[in-house]
Amino acid sequence: MKQVTMESVKQRIAYIEDLNESGVGTKVDEQQFELACLRQLVAVTEQVCELNKALDVSLRVQVYQANRIIQMLDEIKRAESAIGSTGWMGIDTAITLELSKLNKQISDLQGQVRALTEQRDALVVEMKSAFEKPQAYLTWHAIPPTWEDPLPCGEYLDVHDTDGHKNSDGTDCWPVYAKPETPATDAAIASLRAEGVEMLRQKLEQEITKCYQDEQIGLDSAVTLATDFAVQLRSQSAPSPKAAAIARQFEQVKGVQS
Fold it and tell me: The whole model's pTM is what?
């Protein structure tokens, strides 16, 4: 089995995005779900990396503070041997206060490290769950290499590209057509076309005032035609019922998987 890395996941994301942009893919809802899962996996992995960096910095600070305490203890010993018993009480009090401050700082840093560790562990669990979702989804939709291979629900049926064919067991088969639908792209293109027609209508309205009366009649007709055509294009830019149904189904699948 090929090892899954962040690089391979990002390559898979780029591949699916290219399929969606080129309109080659035939299972739009499945590709969108896989793409969403892979993006979630990448985001969680990057968060874990950032937390690991923060945890490493906190540990370095804690080590530095500990080394600082050791240095101060060495300085105390040197000061004690230098001054003997004279003035020891005052020095001892100052050192005790300084040590108390350092101990509090160390305690605070340890608390931050624990919090970061818990957050990292939670993200690791979330990343593992996000990683398993696309794998399980793809496994569920895996197709046997030949129709003889059995599925849990029975025999894998033949697939034809036209209506009226029969499967090997005599039952009616479902035709499969390699014609991807891109309702969102079609709606966006229709909206852009409508904007272009409206810009032309505005230009014609500006030119009408500069023309003679007999010329204005023809331009008025052109303005009316452009207005009607823009309205028609605007109606095409609205999401189709099928596109809305696909979006709702995708949201339901996301809710079940989460």
Answer: 0.28
